[in-house]
Write a structure and sequence with these properties.
Blueprint (H helix, E strand, L loop, with lengths): L6 E2 L16 E2 L22 E5 L5 H8 L2 E6 L4 E5 L6 H9 L6 E6 L2 E3 L15 E4 L2 H5 L2 H5 L2 H5 L8 E6 L18 E2 L28 H12 L4 E6 L6 E3 H13 L4 E4 L1 E2 L5 H12 L3 E5 L17 E7 L17 E4 L3 E5 L3 E5 L2 H18 L5 H10 L15 H6 L2
Parallel strand pairs: 1-6, 9-11, 9-13, 10-11, 13-15, 15-16, 16-17
Antiparallel strand pairs: 2-14, 3-5, 3-6, 4-5, 7-12, 8-19, 18-19
Helix pairs in contact: 6-9, 7-8, 9-10
Length: about 425
């Protein structure tokens, strides 16, 4: 329980999303019978706490009172990442501080975990992993999904020139031939805190799920979908997930702020968490106010339970449909979903200069991010609300729980 003045955030419930571990994870298909997994509450592996202070409260007082230590901070918004004392777990510290009537807090929450839905420790499935299809880019550029969303017709009107799409994900194969000259020079690795967002693999099963480096290629694959659907847009590569496809809300929020402060027009988040995080909500709201369209995958749990940040009001939540516009069997659905896009048998760039086919809402989201870039290039002065409205208004109705329907790139640009 919390005091009336303090908002305390706990996981929204067990089994929210394939990405919703204590870490952020990418969104790919999960086995339908793996309901209510024990680790998808956003708390697995959590060691830190995040707090936002009211103006009257100082962090020095909190550290003195609770023995906490500041790990990182966002000074302008008075938000801090804290290391709890050895005598307290993150959950215990959150509860104690939230119920401390002498503290002046806006909110407090664990540093929730998130990740890619296509390969996480809670869910295991055979069809959730990519299949290499060779090194011929023609398979990538002529795939059925592009025909479905009428990309060629849209590119006659806009190719996304002059726009920047931030892809917040695992690392990237920056030298892939299909992505040549597509990346901006201001990408960043927020996992290792350096200016090289390249993919880093360690060959170790860090999350003890029986698989090694299952996050491999996810960011490169997502970036390739943006690249082929918006061929004139630049891609800002931001690494927030490790080689297992896992990360934390703080790092993801940092990446969202990094992107919006460097003029990203669109931010793609093919990842998520089962926990409703105030930290992510604040970052998304600020990005939207800065003019960015924020897009996120809906998750791959075959359920209607919300996943964040997709379920946030300021985010375009994207579900997945099959090549025939039916709901993908793995895709999350519900009234919180905004639109759908192709998410099965999607061919895109993959490490070592090849192309691979992958399924998941992680693959659907970048089609919508690319669409937003095409629209922004066509109407540079348009605000995010207008661009999102165009995406929804011109979608093709495809069934319940899939929002306004499956996106149509050409219709959003041409009005038909």
């Amino acid at each position: 329980m919390s005091t009336p003045s303090t908002l305390i955030r706990w996981p929204v419930g067990i089994g929210a999303a394939a990405l919703g571990l204590a870490l952020l994870a990418p969104t790919g298909p999960a086995a339908a019978d793996d309901d209510d997994g024990p680790n998808d509450d956003g708390l697995v592996g959590v060691t830190d706490v995040v707090v936002k202070l009211k103006p009257a409260q100082t962090i020095r007082e909190i550290n003195a009172r609770y023995g906490t230590r500041v790990i990182d901070k966002v000074t302008p918004v008075r938000t801090y990442l804290l290391d709890p004392p050895a005598t307290s777990t993150p959950e215990q510290l959150v509860e104690a501080m939230a119920n401390d009537a002498e503290l002046q807090l806006e909110w407090i929450e664990p540093n929730f975990a998130d990740g890619q839905p296509e390969g996480n420790p809670t869910y295991k499935w055979d069809h959730g992993q990519p299949t290499v299809v060779g090194n011929d880019p023609a398979v990538w550029r002529s795939q059925r999904a592009l025909t479905t969303v009428r990309a060629a017709e849209a590119h006659g009107v806009s190719r996304g020139e002059g726009t920047i799409v931030a892809v917040i994900d695992t690392g990237f194969r920056l030298s892939h031939p299909g992505l040549s000259n597509r990346f901006t020079s201001n990408g960043y690795d927020l996992v290792d805190d350096d200016a090289d967002p390249s993919e880093t693999l360690n060959g170790v099963d860090d999350d003890k799920d029986g698989r090694t480096d299952e996050g491999r290629g996810h960011g490169t694959h997502v970036a390739g979908i943006v690249a082929v659907a918006a061929p004139g847009a630049k891609i800002m590569p931001l690494r927030v997930l490790d080689d297992e496809g896992l990360g934390y809300a703080w790092t993801t929020a940092e990446a969202i702020r990094w992107a919006s402060e460097r003029d990203a027009d669109v931010i793609n988040l093919s990842l998520g968490t089962a926990a409703d995080s105030e930290l992510l909500e604040d970052a998304v709201e600020d990005a939207e106010e800065d003019g960015a369209v924020v897009v996120a995958s809906a998750g791959n749990d075959s359920r209607s339970q919300k996943q964040w940040p997709a379920a946030d009001d300021d985010v375009v939540a994207v579900a997945s449909v099959t090549p025939t516009d039916a709901r993908s069997p793995f895709s999350n659905v519900g009234p919180w979903v905004d639109v759908a896009a192709p998410g099965q048998r999607i061919v895109s760039t993959f490490p070592r200069g090849v192309y691979a086919r992958w399924d998941g809402t992680s693959m659907a989201a970048p089609f919508v991010a690319a669409q937003a870039a095409l629209l922004r290039a066509q109407r540079p002065a348009a605000d995010p609300e207008y661009l999102v409205a165009r995406i929804k208004q011109t979608a093709v109705p495809v069934g319940p729980g899939l929002g306004a329907g499956r996106i149509d790139l050409a219709a959003s640009l041409l009005g038909r």
